[in-house]
């Protein structure tokens, strides 16, 4: 593996094996285990089984304990999955110092080593996304739309009106990376290929290196972690592009204060509005931009890829959505406000997210209080353990959705019409099943305190992209009626990485 030598891997493997057996022998719990409950060796083989069959195991636990809690073995620990809306609500409402989102992320990605301890300690970049970035979406929409048009033209490179077989995810990833970075760092950097590839690869690097470091016992992490991580080289690489821009911004702020003429309205400025002390350094700001790209690019690309697989597998959705886009754009043009009137598009994307959520578990939190976390029914999860809510099983439960297993792209727009009757084209009133609305039965963006702060941007970008595809391109499945099956990696589930669809420019 690139940059990790064989001795390091063997050493990690040996250390991991010793600590697995040691840690396993110490963990006892009265909470039922779905697999691997008969001792350290059984739980170890259970952990391997879980890695390969996470979706089935969590689904099994969900059916066996519909209103209870169960645990599943991972290589080092038991992790806990809590069922039922009341428990999901309690996880969503728990304060950070009791059920910690940050420590959960830090454990999963080993952020101290892979990204830097400053990321573990402080997520202020999330505030920039939740605040200024979201508030500026309407104002910045023309640039985002301009980038979408440019990116589709450039990346798809469809010269003639002939059908082309498109490898979906890598192309969509390029388009999403460009479009997102138009808002994050602006032109011309958002079109610089090396910068885009760096941001796309960063996520995979952090996940893979984080998993390897996670296999080490605590005492070895500070020793081997820095050799396994590419933390310094990734930031150095990003500095090549972001360094001069951020240095210039910092100098301008020193000279003119916060409100200098022509100050760009982008993520760099929004971060600078919040950054204090050591956060106002070029490397720290660079790291924040990498972190936001990491949160934004893969999640959004996977959603659009899944939506395209659904569109081509269930083509009956094509014409009604296309008509909706044409009608709304003819009446109102392209704006964030006009996207809000594309109810079928919103519904189609929400339904895609409902059935294509990327993991059987969601909302991972680490128990941060020494006495453990006790739910209102008295169930206690021990200190230091990871707690999750069921993701796929919640979304596929017939108690939550009629014919829950079936893809029904207009499920939510129909519900909207039923709720609002003849006012369905008017203001939303009490309708609360928009793409961005989280709930106890819809956890794709999480729910509660840490619900994804970027979901308003993600929804704007995804709706604008899907609408753009619908009125500019014809699409069809590579093989009629066949949806490329999802790929699975441990608890991650993704739209098929190698999947293709046919695409051509629409005749005008
Ligand atoms: C379809 C696209 C997206 C999906 C499915 C998604 C999903 C999520 C989820 C599940 C979480 C954790 C919530 C929890 O555990 O309660 C999260 C957190 C986060 N997301 Fe997103 N996300 C998406 C797009 C974005 C975008 C475009 C941005 C940035 C512009 C973004 C920025 C963030 C940040 C900064 C956090 C961490 C929040 C914190 O520190 O409290 N996400 N996202």
From TrEMBL:
Extract one GO molecular function annotation from the record. Answer: iron ion binding
- What cofactor is this protein dependent on? heme
**PROSITE patterns with a match to the protein in the record:** CYTOCHROME_P450
- Give the UniProt keywords, A-Z: Heme, Iron, Metal-binding, Monooxygenase, Oxidoreductase
Q: Which residues bind heme?
A: 452
Q: Which family does it belong to?
A: Belongs to the cytochrome P450 family.
The protein's name is: Cytochrome P450
Supply the source organism for this entry: Mycena albidolilacea
């Amino acid at each position: 593996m690139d940059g990790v030598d064989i001795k390091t891997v063997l050493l990690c493997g040996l250390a991991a094996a010793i600590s697995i057996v040691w840690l396993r022998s110490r963990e006892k719990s009265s909470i039922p285990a779905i697999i691997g409950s008969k001792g350290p060796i059984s739980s170890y083989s259970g952990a391997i089984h879980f890695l390969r069959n996470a979706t089935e195991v969590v689904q099994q636990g969900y059916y066996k304990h519909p209103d209870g809690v169960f645990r599943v073995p991972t290589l080092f620990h038991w992790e806990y999955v809590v069922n039922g809306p009341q428990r999901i609500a309690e996880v969503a409402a728990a304060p950070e110092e009791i059920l910690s989102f940050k420590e959960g992320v830090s454990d999963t990605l080993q952020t101290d080593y892979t990204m830097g301890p400053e990321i573990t300690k402080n997520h202020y970049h999330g505030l920039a996304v939740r605040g200024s970035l979201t508030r500026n979406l309407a104002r910045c929409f023309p640039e985002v739309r301009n980038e979408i048009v440019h990116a589709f033209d450039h990346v798809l490179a469809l010269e003639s009106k002939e059908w082309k077989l498109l490898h979906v995810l890598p192309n969509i990833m390029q388009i999403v990376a460009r479009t997102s970075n138009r808002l994050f760092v602006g032109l011309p950097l958002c079109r610089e290929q090396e910068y885009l590839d760096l941001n796309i690869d960063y996520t995979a690097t952090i996940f893979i290196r984080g998993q390897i470091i996670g296999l080490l016992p605590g005492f070895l992490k500070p020793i081997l972690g820095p050799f396994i991580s590419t933390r310094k080289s990734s930031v150095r690489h990003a500095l090549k592009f972001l360094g001069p821009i951020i240095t210039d911004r910092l100098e301008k702020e020193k000279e003119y204060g916060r409100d200098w003429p022509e100050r760009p309205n982008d993520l760099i400025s929004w971060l600078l509005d919040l950054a204090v002390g050591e956060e106002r350094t070029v490397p720290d700001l660079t790291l924040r931009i990498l972190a936001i790209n990491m949160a934004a690019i893969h999640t959004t690309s996977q959603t659009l890829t899944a939506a395209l697989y659904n569109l081509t597998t269930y083509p009956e959705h094509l014409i009604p959505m296309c008509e909706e886009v044409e009608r709304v754009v003819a009446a109102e043009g392209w704006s964030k406000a006009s996207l809000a009137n594309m109810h079928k598009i919103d519904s189609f994307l929400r339904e895609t997210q409902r059935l294509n959520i990327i993991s059987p578990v969601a909302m991972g939190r680490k128990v941060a209080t020494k006495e453990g976390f006790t739910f209102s029914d008295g169930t206690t999860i021990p200190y230091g353990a990871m707690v999750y809510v069921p993701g796929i099983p919640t979304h596929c439960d017939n108690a939550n959705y009629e014919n829950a297993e079936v893809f029904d792209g207009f499920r939510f727009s129909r519900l909207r019409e039923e709720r609002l009757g003849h006012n369905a084209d008017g203001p939303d009133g009490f309708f609360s099943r928009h793409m961005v609305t989280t709930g106890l039965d819809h956890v794709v963006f999480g729910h509660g305190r840490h619900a994804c702060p970027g979901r308003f941007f993600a929804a704007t970008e995804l709706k604008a992209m899907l609408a753009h595809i619908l009125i500019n391109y014809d699409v069809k499945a590579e093989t009629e009626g066949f949806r490329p099956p999802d790929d699975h990696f441990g608890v991650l589930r993704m739209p098929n990485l190698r999947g293709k669809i046919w695409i051509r420019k629409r005749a005008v």
